[in-house]
Amino acid sequence: MNLCMNNRDMITVKNIKAILEVVTDPEIPVLTVSDLGIIREIKVNGEEVEIIITPTYTGCPAMDMIAMNIRLTLAEHGYKNGKITTVLSPAWTTDWMSEAGKAKLKTYGIAPPNPKQVVCDTKHFAEQESIQCPHCNSYHTRLISQFGSTACKALYQCNDCREPFDYFKCH
After folding, report:
1. Cβ partners under 8 Å of residue 64, min gap 6
2. What angle do CA 65, 84, 26 make, to 5 degrees?
3. pTM (predicted TM-score)
4. ∠ at Cα 108 (76, 127), nearest 5°?
5. pLDDT, tens digit, for every residue of 60-92?
6. Fold (CATH) for 7-86
7. Where does the chain hold its CATH 3.30.300.130 domain(s)?
8. H or E, element range at 67
9. CB of 67 within 8 A of CB of 101?
């Protein structure tokens, strides 16, 4: 996050950052926008606050709701002039997710992206990566569908516990 502000504004930027810690993803409510790493920059200019966000993928339907929730949360804390700007470059990557966010995904029943992806090819990732079941921790899993409950997830099933689960695909 770029926090290039003068010392007078630094406290405000820190306050905004703390306020945003409660804004959750409408598709995965255990994750905050901070967990996802979609907040790219916070700009403060007097009474005006601009939040720069990057979607997890272009066309993500949750981004409109996230932007609205950011505006509402800012307004609830007295920041009435909140502006949300979406930038597509650089493209979001699962490397931007916090480790706490990845742990929350697993606890929620969604396999988090594997650390340090060796292969990040949506056509072949299932053939080359073992995806750990978030329920029983087995790597004996199989791909059911390239798309799970949302386009950014794939649907898997564990061959040991037989439970289906989403895998948050690498981006």
Report:
1. none
2. 20
3. 0.78
4. 125
5. 889 999 999 999 999 998 888 889 999 999 999
6. GMP Synthetase; Chain A, domain 3 (3.30.300)
7. 7-86
8. helix 62-76
9. no
